[in-house]
Request: fold
Amino acid sequence: MQDQISRAEATGTSGSAIVHEDLTSRWFMLSSVAYFFIVGIIALIIAGKYVWPDFMGTSSWLTYGRLRPLHVNGMLFGWLLAADMGLTFYIVPRLCGVKLWSEKLGVATGILWNVIVLSAVVTLMAGMNKGLEYAELVTPISVLVVVAWLMFAANIFMTIAGRKYQAMYVTIWYFMGCILWTAFVYLTGNFATLVTSGVNQANLHWMYIHNAVGLIFTPIGLGIAYYFIPRSSNTPLHSHKLSMIGFWALAFVYVWTGAHHMLHGPISQWLQSIAIAFSVMLVIPVWAVVYNLIRTMKGQWHQLRDSVPLKFLMSGVVFYLLTCFQGPMHSLRTVNAIVSKTDWIPGHAHMAVLGAFSFFAIAGTYYTAPRIFGKPLFSQALANWSYWMIMIGGLGMFTTLWLGGFWQGWQWNNVAIPFIDTVVALQPVWLMRFLSGVMIFSGIVMFAYNVMATALGPIPEPASRA
Amino acid sequence: MERKVDTSALWAVIASLVLFFIGGILTTVAPPLIDHSWSKPFKNADPAKGITGELRPLNAQQAAGRLIYLREGCRYCHTQQIRTILADTKRYGWKGVDAPISTPDEFVYDQPHVFGTKRTGPDLARIGGKYDTQWHRTHFRNPRNLVKGSIMPPFPWIVADPVELAQLTAYLQTLGRDKNWRPANDYEK
Reply:
């Protein structure tokens, strides 16, 4: 089982049987990288608005309340999910030892995805939204998302159904899980919420928000990490059995935890307690995955020095461990009473989505870009710089928001302090967050430029294919 | 069986959906059937049973104001829930009266809900009746004219439209007033 990943890849590169076209992967990679850059600008603007609240403040299209959903949706769906889908289109045919079922359908999915993201930009800035966090996109766009997802699902499942190897590597498990769960999670958050109201709706909505991360970005991101860590380091995965434990525990445990976002809030206490219990259980799948991936690198850590994808991958694993330790911890009522609703939470959320899952996606993009474009990476040095800028900027942002948020929570719990004083006190934190954001953004610019220059650069001599 | 799990895609699909739906159904479909306070609007006329009041649906003007609240993304910085935390009831009280804790039966008509996730600004669950229309107009034009150090964005396009301003203000004045928690302390009195 452990050598399966090598067998599959060997078939792909031997040139005897299969030549992967990777047209779909290219579409998704280039558009996701472009959105990473564009939405990065939005991110900087809204971070700046915390420090200079009148900055771009007089135009309704550029007000904080409209740019923030654009930042969140743009990063989640325009960048991260698109990048992850592109990598899925790259990985699955190789692990199955066959060509992608339909490149035509794949390219059509990529075009539709761009239509979705661009219409999301216009509608959100015009103030048109469903009013539900993470599910802001108006219903017609949500319907298009469902269509695109079905097209994606059909392509991937048909490829898997025609696979050459009977046994499936763990990455395929995670991708299949992601596709299936996402379908139901997305329908719950975007459609079931339309016919409910009040606490009932909030409960469905929280199930969606929590599992947008837990059952969409987590499984697809872990599938990517499970593929690229052994691949980049030329090392077999430590344990297939452990990877299965992690997968099945995730499948069972994650969906129960939505109500932990309403702790102390107007929702049944027993439901809060259930959510807390299952939140603590999340450490089982997380630690199984992290131990497996860390053990895979045993004796191979020196490779991090020269490999940018491995740097991103293993830092992502560490951030994944940290963010998934924070999660269960702030599900405890006592901790929650301090950190909930504070700036700690964006620090936590950014470590999950940027620190863990975007790191995996960036690593995968750096690894696959030379392969799908048939050219060496434009610049290894620039790639290394992009890692350090995003890493240091990210750490700066996470840590200042945690410290600031914790402090803010203590101040809120002291009713002698007027609310506005707790706002003024956070100003240095928000300035640091903005400056960290500038660093992260400069890393994103380097990353995007590097990938674009690789894609658009001249075709090298035939012998130099990476 | 373990071999089967490893090699059959169909088996994998079925198993991962079954595991998902156990938790999915028990935490989303079951709770509203068990806890009826989620769907029964708040109503109490007997002071002996606790705080009195009645939850009323929004009128047309207030509902339009709520849409403005959604359009401008107010919910990204303002929560609407007094939690079971002492500091919440004290901080969001008014003139020495503690704010009552928010209960599910106060939100039955909320579509979509605006409980919110982040308090960049203060909670608004009990804001209704605290500030008058003139205060809100000045505050929306530029919050820093009234609250030094505030980082709330200005909303000149709402202030410039008397209809929208009246709608949004009307909505804000409804918040938290279905419970009669400080009848003698309104700005109106």
About this structure: Residues 186 and 320 of chain A are 23 Å apart (CA to CA). DSSP finds 16 helices and no strands in chain A. The mean pLDDT of chain A is 93.
